[in-house]
Amino acid sequence: MNIAVCIKQVPDTHTIRIDEKRMTIVREGGDNVINALDCVALEAALDLKARRGGSITVLTMGPPQSEEALREALGYGADTAILLSDPAFAGADTLATSHVLARAISRLEPFPDLILCGKQTSDSDTGHVGPQIAEELDLPQVCGVDEIHLEENALVVKRLSDGLVETFRLSLPALLTVSNALCAPRRPSFGDLEAAFSMGSVRTWRLDDLGLNPDEVGASGSATWVVKLRSAPPKARGEIVSGPTQDLVDRLIKKLEALSVIDEESRSQ
Amino acid sequence: MRLEPTMKQAVIRRTTRKYAEERLSAAAMEMDSTARFPQEIAREMAGLHYFGLEIPAEYGGAGLDSVSCAIVIEELSRVCAAMGLCVSVHNSVATYPVYEFGSEEQRRQFLVPLATGRHIGTFCLTEPNAGSDASSLETIAVKDGDSYILNGNKVFVTNGGASGINLIFAISELSEKKKRYSVFIVESDREGLEKGPVEDLMGMRGNPVCPIVLHDCRVPASNLLGEEGKGLKIALSSLSGGRIGIAAQSLGIGQGALDTSLKYSKERYQFGKPIGRFGAIQNMLADMATEIEAARLLIHRACAMRDKGVAHTKESAMAKLFASEMAVRATRLGVQIHGGYGYSKAYPIERYYRDAKVCEIYEGTSEIQRLVIARELFS
Question: A71 and B7: CB-CB below 8 Å?
Fold first, then answer.
């Protein structure tokens, strides 16, 4: 079974910093890690490979430093890594990003039986890229999968959604995005990491390699753009009150009025 | 020498830190209070190549460079110094000498079980009458046919209580004019080797430090490591790597003390503000941080020289001397920053203070390191 896994290098949540002028997350200087849910996707791929054989290709779109994430993925057990990197890709929204990834996947030989993505990233949180890739490649998709079962030429997957467990059967090839509940990522050994970082150069595909035009990618190829980015103010500490019930009700009403949550009219109701 | 970590070293640091924080944080407190070595965690670490860091893959190791190894030991020690000690000593003075001086047969028989963590290793040098003055040691190995018979007492053997393979440093030739030393690989289950009770120590309490007694212990000649009479060469070579390991361990202890003290400074309020806003506290943190960076640079320089195959006796001694004394200063300041809570076992900083002290003593005391450095300066 040939599997493609899309990963993204994201800032470690402990060290995240925002550039409010450029409206971007500062990626240089801090610690960068493989997005946690992408590690789950990779673990799922490794498990499927152990059961069915085949190979795993990891892809990422990012600046040259993203090579670190790819090599770490190789250390986990992926077989091939491809870096999609070009100055023209910068400033991409999720649509432009998924367009590049979908084009790259369509150029894999053979075309993968399964594409796995994390459900969302810790920095952007949109959850768009997996579904957008599936749409562009016209593949069946299920997002937020908790369980994967292999059949002869199909997958049966489950996910928890709005309090219900949904079960889907998909024919292959297909795309899945995975949730935390699917599996726990393994720990790479130092020997595997050493081998991953000692192997030859990582394959890099640029704009021309993918046969894309500049207006299809990066900021030019984006349909959305960030208008404002700011750190969320720290949550104010709540106030805990106690006392006789009627007193508490009176205090609560006064507080809600002061915060303009309720007014005279709604109070009388 | 590059000052920025490579991609690989950054990933190794992150990987080790994650493992240490997830698996060793809680264990560190328990190890300290019960003085119990966590065999189950050690087995898990063996599978991840913690016990064969530098050894090539063909012998079951990870084949890492010296800087990467130092990073691993630093990150382990940042959370659990006792486990950092176990890994450092096992790798540098028990396993590496078998790789460097062992025959191919010895590598297959002893190096593979050490590098894969199937056996934990020790290096037994110190005796009741032989600490800094190693030449006063009395353990003797007498040739008898195709064996040697060993008799002697070794004390303060790091990892002793959990070890499966022990490198024993002994006199193999004793005449009026000279003494010659040899190193013997002695399995823990060999008849004639006995282990005493684990020492009740001030710090590093999870590491099973114990005495090892050899009583008419018959060891095949094939267990002699390197050439007979060349034991001193093996010991000096191993100690150089061992010094870097302990320096890295000290660095981890210092870094752990800084991290926890910085966090406390932001959370502890006095006089209406976090104590981190007071100059006195800021000065302490600044001193800790500066010395930690200095120690790191000294260690990585010694590592870079080791990897180039360049002699680094002075540099490894400097790294060990500075880092160990830094760890004691940093942990003392850490306790001070925590105030009364720093004196309580409810907070980890007092354990860091107790753990740090021995770094100035073992693997060559600070006094011996100064002697080594001075000798290098004058040569």
Answer: yes
Helices B366-378 and B313-338: angle between axes, nearest 10 degrees: 140
C-alpha of B43 from chain center: 19
Question: Is residue A187 located within the same domain as residue A266?
Answer: no
Q: Give the closest of B7, B49, B57 to A197, CB-based.
A: B7
The answer to whether residue A227 is domain-embedded is no
Shortest Cα distance from A191 to chain B (angstroms)?
Answer: 4
- CB neighbours of B51 closer than 8 A, spacing ≥ 6? B45, B87, B90, B91, B95, B114, B115, B116, B117, B120
Whether the full predicted model's pTM is greater than 0.95, yes or no, is no
What is the rounded CA–CA span in Å between residue B245 and residue B258? Answer: 20
ipTM of the complex: 0.92
* C-alpha atoms less than 13 angstroms from C-alpha of A80 in its C-beta half-sphere: 15
Whose structure tokens read 């850490």?
A: B334
Residues 1-30 of B with CB under 8 A from A: 6-8, 10-12, 14-15, 18-19
Residues A34, A160 share a domain:
yes
Contacts of B64 in chain A (CB under 8 A): 190, 194
| Distance in angstroms (rounded) separating the CA atoms of residues B305 and A176 | 49
Q: How far is Cα B9 from Cα B61, in angstroms, rounded to an integer?
A: 17
Question: Which residue ranges in chain B fall short of pLDDT 70?
Answer: 1
CA dist B245 and B247 (Å) reads 5
Question: Alpha-carbon dihedral of residues B152, B154, B159, B162, nearest 10 degrees?
Answer: 40
Neighbours of B337 (CB within 10 A): 25
A121 neighbors A93 (Cβ within 8 angstroms): no
Phi-psi region for residue A226, left (φ > 0), alpha (ψ -120 to 50) or beta?
beta
* Model pLDDT, residue A22: 67
* Residue A112 sits in the same domain as residue A162: yes
> Mapping DSSP to helix (H, G, I), strand (E, B) and coil, where does residue B269 land?
strand
- pLDDT attached to residue B368: 96
A201: containing domain: 2-216
Domains of chain B: 7-120 (1.10.540.10), 122-229 (2.40.110.10), 233-378 (1.20.140.10)
DSSP state of B130: B
Q: What would the DSSP string read from start to end of A42-85?
A: HHHHHHHHHHH--EEEEEEES-GGGHHHHHHHHHHT-SEEEEE-
Nearest to B11 among A12, A72, A191 (CB): A72
Q: What is the average per-residue pLDDT within A88-112?
A: 96
Task: Answer whether B196 touches A (CB < 8 Å).
Answer: no
User: Hey, which residues of B are catalytic here?
Assistant: 363
Q: Residue type at A175?
A: L
Q: What are the backbone dihedrals phi and psi of residue A19, each rounded to the nearest 5 degrees, phi first?
A: -100, 100
Q: What is the C-alpha separation between A197 and B352, in angstroms, rounded?
A: 34
Q: Which amino acid is at B289?
A: A
Q: What is the mean pLDDT of residues A100-116?
A: 97
State the residue for tokens 């467990």: A165
- Which site among A193, A201, A202 would you substitute to test the B interface, given the most B Cβ atoms closer than 10 Å to its Cβ? A193
SS3 A246: helix
Q: Using one digit for the tens of pLDDT, what is the confidence trace for A162-176?
A: 899 999 999 999 999
pLDDT at A262: 82
The answer, yes or no, to whether residue A132 has pLDDT greater than 70, is yes
- Name the residue among A116, A129, A112, A118 with its Cα closest to residue A173: A112
